[in-house]
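Our consortium's second objective concerns turning raw sequence data into structural hypotheses that experimental partners can test. To show how far this objective has progressed, the report includes one record in full. It was chosen at random from the queue rather than selected for favorable results. The single chain below, 428 residues long, was entered without modification.
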Amino acid sequence: MPGIVIVGVQWGDEGKGKATDLLGERTDWVVKFNGGNNAGHTVVIGDEKYALHLLPSGILSDGVNAVIGNGVVVDLEVLFAELEALHARGVDTSRLKVSANAHIITQYHRTLDKVTERFLGKRQIGTTGRGIGPAYADKINRVGIRVQDLFDENILRQKVEGALDQKNHLLVKVFNRRAIAVDEIVDDLLSYAERLRPMVADTALLLDEALDRGEVVVFEGGQATMLDVDHGTYPFVTSSSATAGGASTGSGVGPNRLDRIVGIVKAYTTRVGSGPFPTELFDEQGEWLRSRGFEFGTTTGRPRRVGWYDAPITRYATRINGITDLVLTKLDILTGLDRIPVCVAYDVDGERFDEVPVNQSDFHHAKPILEYLPGWKQDITGARTFEDLPVEAQDYVLALEKMSGTRISVIGVGAARDAVIVRHDLVD
């Protein structure tokens, strides 16, 4: 099973970094295939906590080759700040490779992201303001700057001039901002070129050769299924393909090389930013979940919206991604509840929907139809086998498994690196 894709099932922040780290000792390569520094992974190793935003979380595992794929948009300032922070903590980052075809986030992308979001007012998407969307827009409009462009100053200058011809008109005439000078952008990007050069490679070729050798390659998705630009809650989505199909386009590896699709899902649900969220809680129970689960964004620090587990969303994600295994995280957070609500379907103006409605307006008005499962009081953070769990916790997992359309192979029962129960091996 050399090719393993890890994707989020909900709206992100499910604990994908921990799942990647769990595979780390048997993994040869970890590839980030989409997104940028608009999301984060928190990985706990012993007493050390690492917050990663752009780098693949596998970079923390000894001997693992980390790859930033062509589907990623790269903020070079963030990249080198993260690398320097890891160096200061003694982490070896020499195995990092960056695709020559990955696109660059520039200053004008960040500026446009922030002013455009403010301009939208009540119609804001809830972006992080880090330039992700504008960088992807330039990529699709064929006026983007790629990593390889930094090594040809003439090409780089031509591309920046072409991009700013239009963007400065927008900044000055629509948003009443100052024009951005071409030299300002070119000089900034060139300042990173020599440090970046040793990391740049034809990463698609490297990964194909690794798979030919039978090495284990993990494709680590940013964001999650419900934020996918095609299959998520559009327009309240990210700007890239966050589903399993994006692993192929975002890395240059053919889909027939992907052997297992692992979906990461919380034992409850969270999201950041605007958009529909049927099980969202606005009461004391919501505050309790947010506080116990420490639901604040790794990248933004924003409080996450919280709600109960949504089985239709998990079934939808299982189908869209072709998920073979689920990793259920943060089961321990639910400890102490007398009973645990689970969304099993939706009510839309009196009509029952057992699956996610295809019409966005219907989903926006969906109310959760809840079933209640018995809770448990015992501390489960020390459980290492399924049988170690209280019977109520076992029943909760089995009920979610039946509702979700695929097996739950791993259960997270705490923040520590080893606080997991493995029911089925993810690499076999």
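The partners drew two points from this record. The CA atoms of residues 55 and 68 lie 7 Å apart. The chain has a mean pLDDT of 92. Both points have been shared with the crystallography group to help prioritize constructs.
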